């Protein structure tokens, strides 16, 4: 439908045009970040923020509130959404001028009704931009200038927006202020207010952080190594021991910056109830895949009641896996993305938790790397993959224990969180990458049928590593 009463250069009017929302609703399911794939939902404009010839739209889609920055252009550019009348509606994340407008709002240089910027340091002007490709629930844009003050930066546009603080901003901000060297420094953040019933609520829209130059992604490094090991030519092993030490350092800095608390009985009960609910949620969401493990999962649910005390609680990363760590060109590991699990409600993401939740996240990730390698090389020897997992997990745990001064306990909390993560992953893969479902599903099977005293991946603890 053509824009009827809207002026071609009147974007504020354009956001009210039903054709704009219709075009975005038709386009969103083709994006990687769209969280409602396969679901039929109504899409409606909740609020828009005017950035001149660009705008940030908050769209209600089912239960989710989605952020879609758009711009109106004469040419389709790198990321067209639709041609509307005589102009193109484009994805603003791929448009340098529109990204500059977002950055100016975040660094407080541009005042926009309903938006608020918070600058810890001034990011350099946009320059050439590049949008990070790949498996992302958000959209990250790299810009800036390595030679300019404010350097190169990466701006993460949160796609699912919620009222309240986004931990990626608050936690990274606290670590930045504490001088933690194992996370990229936060430079600026953008938040918005929008109506919710009779109230007005506020939530974060974007975080801008220092870009880590020449970095290698931990997931790429380890999965390639696992595949090479399966093919008999592993080469140099990425340093999982140093990675364990980096995670311990961030845990220590988080404890200092944001405090710790000894878990009360009420905390433990809430924790157990939360795990029970997640287990029930996963069984319901993935009933076909998990049905054959019904009896074992019921026993696992009963075992949750054996959790005595949680020990010390603190802010943690919350969704730690190999895709959240980078190895810089100096060889040092950095941790990213303190947003927590995207399938978890925002209000659950800034509660203090046992540190071991992050530890098991990484252990699961080594299992994923070898699981992915076996999917690529179906004829590969599962014993080599199993051995690779055990070695990396041990190296990681040793590095963590050395830096922390204590090893994480292999106790009911550890076991429960390992299963919780694998169940979450089953639901995540069903929704996003069904071909990868066997990886977490096999892990759930191994965990619920495991005997006590086995290694986290389900491999026997006394296995002799293959040389
Ligand atoms: N500060 C940074 N420096 C360099 N690359 C980064 C930085 N932050 C993120 N990246 C790259 O962007 C990818 C996605 O970032 P991430 O924060 O994990 O987003 P998401 O929450 O959408 O998964 C990372 O895997 C990494 O490759
Ligand atoms: O990075 P996100 O915050 O978007 O996290 C979600 O997506 C991850 C996949 O990109 C998913 O992680 C799972 O797959 C990884 C390999 O791609 C693997 O290393 C992780 O161990 C595994 O959990 C994550 O669970 C999800 O929340």
Automatic annotation (TrEMBL):
Keywords: ATP-binding, Carbohydrate metabolism, Glycogen biosynthesis, Glycogen metabolism, Kinase, Nucleotide-binding, Transferase
Gene Ontology biological process: glycogen biosynthetic process
Classification via SUPFAM superfamilies: Protein kinase-like (PK-like)
GO MF annotations, alphabetized: ATP binding; kinase activity
Pathway: Glycan biosynthesis; glycogen biosynthesis
Lineage: superkingdom: Bacteria
Catalytic activity: D-maltose + ATP = alpha-maltose 1-phosphate + ADP + H(+)
Residue ranges of domain Maltokinase N-terminal cap in the record: 27-95
InterPro entries associated with the record: Kinase-like_dom_sf, Mak_N_cap
Enzyme class: transferase
Coiled-coil annotated residue ranges, if any: none
EC number: 2.7.1.175
Assembly and oligomerization: Monomer.
Family recorded in the similarity comment: Belongs to the aminoglycoside phosphotransferase family.
Protein name per UniProt: Maltokinase
């Amino acid at each position: 439908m053509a824009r009827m009463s809207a002026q071609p250069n009147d974007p504020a009017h354009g956001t009210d045009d039903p054709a704009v929302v219709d075009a975005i609703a038709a386009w969103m399911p083709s994006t990687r970040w769209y969280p409602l794939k396969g679901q039929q939902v109504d899409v409606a404009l909740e609020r828009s923020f005017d950035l001149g010839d660009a705008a940030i739209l908050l769209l209600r889609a089912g239960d989710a509130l989605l952020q879609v920055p758009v711009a109106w252009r004469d040419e389709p550019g790198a990321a067209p959404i639709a041609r509307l009348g005589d102009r193109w509606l484009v994805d603003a994340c791929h448009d340098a001028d529109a990204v500059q407008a977002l950055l100016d709002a975040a660094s407080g240089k541009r005042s926009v009704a309903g938006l608020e910027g918070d600058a810890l340091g001034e990011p350099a002007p946009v320059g050439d931009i590049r949008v990070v490709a790949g498996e992302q629930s958000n959209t990250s844009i790299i810009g800036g200038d390595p030679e300019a003050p404010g350097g190169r930066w990466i701006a993460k546009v949160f796609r699912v927006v919620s009222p309240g603080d986004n931990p990626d901003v608050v936690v990274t901000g606290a670590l930045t202020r504490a001088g933690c060297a194992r996370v990229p420094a936060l430079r600026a953040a953008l938040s918005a207010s929008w109506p919710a019933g009779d109230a007005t609520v506020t939530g974060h829209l974007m975080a801008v952080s220092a870009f880590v130059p020449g970095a290698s992604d931990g997931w790429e490094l380890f999965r390639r190594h696992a595949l090479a090991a399966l093919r008999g030519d592993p080469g140099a092993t990425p340093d999982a021991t140093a990675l364990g030490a980096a995670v311990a350092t961030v845990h220590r800095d988080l404890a200092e910056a944001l405090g710790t608390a000894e878990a009360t009985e009420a905390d433990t009960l809430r924790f157990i109830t939360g795990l029970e609910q997640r287990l029930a949620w996963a069984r319901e969401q993935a009933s076909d895949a998990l049905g054959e493990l019904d009896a074992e999962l019921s026993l696992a649910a009963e075992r949750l009641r054996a959790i005595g005390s949680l020990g010390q609680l603190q802010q943690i990363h919350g969704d730690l896996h190999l895709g959240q760590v980078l190895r810089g060109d100096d060889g040092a590991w950095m941790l990213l993305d303190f947003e927590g699990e995207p399938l978890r409600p925002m209000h659950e993401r800034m509660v203090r938790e046992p540190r071991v939740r992050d530890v098991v996240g990484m252990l699961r990730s080594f299992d994923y790397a070898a699981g992915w390698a076996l999917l690529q090389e179906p004829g590969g020897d599962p014993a080599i993959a199993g051995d690779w997992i055990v070695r990396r997990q041990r190296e990681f745990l040793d590095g963590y224990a050395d830096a922390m001064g204590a090893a994480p306990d292999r106790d009911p909390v550890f076991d429960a969180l390992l299963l919780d993560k694998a169940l979450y992953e089953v639901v995540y893969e069903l929704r996003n990458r069904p071909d990868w479902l066997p990886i977490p599903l096999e892990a759930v099977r191994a965990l619920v049928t495991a005997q006590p005293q086995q290694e986290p991946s389900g491999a026997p603890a006394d296995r002799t590593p293959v040389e």
